Amino acid sequence: MGSDGVPDYPQATWRLIVDSEAAGATNMAVDEAILNGVIDGTSLPTVRFFRWSPPCLSLGRNQSLAEADLPACHADGIDVVRRPTGGRSILHTDELTYSVSLLQTDPRAAGGIVEGYRRLSEGLLAGLHHLGVHLAQAAGQKATRSQSTAVCFESPSDYEITVGGRKLVGSAQWRMRGGVLQHGSLPLFGDLARVVDYLAFPFAEREAQRQRLHHRALTLEEAAGTRYPFERTARALAEGFAVALSLDLVPGELTPQERSLVAELRDGRYANPAWTARL
After folding, report:
1. Which of 197, 245, 221 is nearest to 96 (CA)?
2. Are 92 and 137 in contact (CB under 8 A)?
3. How remote is the C-alpha of 132 from its chain's centroid?
4. Rounded Cα distance, 89 and 154, in Å
5. What is the sign, positive or negative, of the torsion defined by CA atoms of 271, 17, 20, 169?
6. CA 48 to CA 95: how far, in whole Å?
7. Do 96 and 186 contact (CB within 8 A), yes or no?
8. CA–CA dist 219, 204 (Å, integer)
């Protein structure tokens, strides 16, 4: 442990990918393809920042599709995709999404899932500090089953990023074949309560859900007092990951093997209605 309380990690070289906008099925396929490359040893551990077009409602791996208001999504051109990770619903729009793919043997992933959240969240915290969000802290309590709703940003889980008790970054993690994928959503601006319009809440409950979200979550613009564009936010978070996790981040792109797997995963899983409707 360093004198500043940050763990001393051995210096490592990772890949940095800053992607253009893509559809939800493609984004999820890219994350899984990168994780497979890292596991197979053909790709460096990777930090990726990306966006979504069109806007997309993503469901957690084990969340029921019945919690989505599909007619409302279709009417407004909102994609629906199921993530490989757990958690609850997120409306991906006006945001920066990050993903980190690494091996479980990496000291930055040491311990269980909760400990992994804590370690990787140090990179997010350092990046947010670059943007003037000095009140952010990795803290939170898991919601009990009776407290949980269909909305990811309704309450923080252990070691997610909060500001003044309000959730700023929603993250989820998946471990498979010795690899770790963590990805999460940082809303840059806009109305976080829009997600309620695309979930199957009874009409009478929608306003209460909107008010709850306004009370319990916030955007980066609210937290920092200014609006940062995607590119500036990505640079700051990359700097944060590099400093907090002792990384040399080398800009890169997908390998040919990853691109081939993206097409396979997108068509065979994430754009496949059978995967989306699995629950």
Report:
1. 221
2. no
3. 21
4. 10
5. positive
6. 14
7. yes
8. 26
Please list the active-site residues.
Answer: 152
Are 220 and 233 within 8 A, CB to CB? Answer: yes
Q: Which of 52, 47, 32 is nearest to 230 (CA)?
A: 52
Per residue of the chain (279 residues), give pLDDT as tens.
544 455 689 999 999 999 999 999 999 999 999 999 999 999 999 999 999 999 999 999 999 999 999 999 999 999 999 999 999 999 999 999 999 999 999 999 998 888 988 899 999 999 999 999 976 665 555 544 444 566 655 555 567 799 988 999 999 999 999 999 999 999 999 999 999 999 999 988 999 999 999 999 999 999 999 999 999 999 999 999 999 999 999 999 999 999 999 999 999 999 999 999 999
Question: Rounded CA gap, 208 and 210, in Å?
Answer: 5
Q: Under a CB-based contact definition with an 8 Å cutoff, are residues 37 and 258 in contact? A: yes
Pick one of 3.30.930.10, 3.40.50.20, 2.40.50.180, 3.60.150.10 as the CATH number of 12-276. Answer: 3.30.930.10
Q: Nearest to residue 90, comparing CAs of 20, 24, 162?
A: 24
